[in-house]
Design brief:
mainly alpha, two-stranded antiparallel ribbon, 7 helices, globular
């Protein structure tokens, strides 16, 4: 696992760092809230035509955030081989979005909390959000594009918020509970 840099004493986290982390924490909270009071079977349940489940969404978002935090530290070498992913086993890819036998909601929530703490520590320790790396080769990235730590965080926030919305719909379909009113 890549090491989080030690905080540079002359570079305390800025208001921008704090704003990004606050926004990410808010959307993580919305996502986690959708699982309150559920058991593992409910967390596995598909309630829409999509293959998504609440446990699977938590699992996916944790892995996505971990991968992008690694990218901030290591650059494109931290990312998977996207050509292999695109050509890989669709069932294996689908497993990334489901709570599998042997996995529990409590387990994926605990892992998500660990990932979140690590990301928060990493961002707080970054002296400069302009630190950037080239994106890895992938059909969905333009060649030669670089993303700063700031851009990565904005992407993680957007993906977390999008999946929190998916989770809200799944939970409402499951038992009528709503995240927001």
């Amino acid at each position: 696992m890549p090491e989080i840099p030690s905080p540079n004493e002359s570079a305390a986290p800025t208001r921008e760092h704090a704003d990004l982390l606050h926004t990410l924490a808010m959307h993580r909270g919305f996502l986690r809230f959708t699982t309150q009071g559920l058991d593992d079977e409910q967390a596995r349940q598909r309630t829409t035509v999509s293959a998504l489940s609440l446990g699977g969404l938590i699992k996916h978002v944790a892995e996505m955030e971990r991968t992008w935090a690694d990218f901030i530290l290591e650059g494109p070498s931290a990312m998977p081989d996207f050509a292999a992913v695109a050509e890989g086993d669709p069932a294996e890819r689908a497993d990334e979005f489901r709570l599998l036998p042997g996995e529990t909601l409590a387990g994926v929530l605990a892992e998500y909390e660990t990932v979140a703490r690590r990301t928060d520590d990493l961002v707080a320790a970054l002296p400069d959000l302009d630190l950037d790396h080239p994106l890895p080769d992938a059909p969905w990235f333009k060649p030669g594009v670089r993303w700063s730590a700031r851009r990565v965080l904005l992407h993680v926030i957007a993906e977390t918020a999008q999946h929190a919305g998916h989770a809200d719909i799944i939970r409402e379909s499951l038992d009528g509970a709503k995240t927001m009113g």
